């Protein structure tokens, strides 16, 4: 978790209690780009409204710098879609770090 936005991850775990948090994009791959934000995919069981939870978490993270872009997805939906080459999830998994895994 050394290169991940640790303050945001701690806040997400406290607020949403996800199953998994995936740090993806150029920053997660240590490609050396100067990126203005971090990208986190939050996988959580039994999410009825992904957009609402994404908005709620974003409000919790608004004071954290650099900016954190998040996407919440239901765990079952993620399992169904993670290998679809036309969606972000496949690329996010391939170029990522799992920075949190619920025990």
Commentary on this structure:
- This protein has four helices and four strands, in the order H-E-E-H-E-H-H-E.
- It is of the alpha+beta class.
- The protein is globular and about 35 Å long.
- The two termini are 16 Å apart.
- Helix 2 (50-61) links the parallel strand 2 and strand 3.
- The chain has a single domain (6-101), classed as Beta Polymerase, domain 2.
- It has a four-stranded mixed β-sheet with strand order 3-2-1-4.
Compact summary:
Helices cover 36% and strands 26% of the residues.
- The CATH class name reads Alpha Beta
Range of helix content: 25-40%
**Poorly predicted sequence stretches spanning 5 or more consecutive residues:** none
> How many alpha or pi helices?
4
SSE class? alpha+beta
The main β sheet shows up as:
4 strands, mixed
Overall domain count: 1
Specify Rg, calculated over alpha carbons: 13 Å
């Amino acid at each position: 978790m050394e290169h991940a936005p640790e303050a945001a991850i701690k806040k997400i775990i406290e607020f949403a209690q996800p199953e998994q948090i995936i740090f993806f994009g150029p920053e997660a791959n240590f490609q050396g780009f100067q990126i203005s934000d971090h990208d986190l995919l939050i996988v959580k069981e039994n999410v009825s409204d992904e957009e609402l939870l994404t908005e709620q978490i974003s409000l919790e993270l608004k004071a954290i710098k650099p900016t954190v872009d998040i996407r919440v997805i239901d765990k079952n939906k993620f399992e169904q879609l993670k290998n679809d080459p036309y969606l972000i999830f496949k690329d996010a998994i391939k170029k990522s770090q799992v920075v949190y895994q619920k025990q």
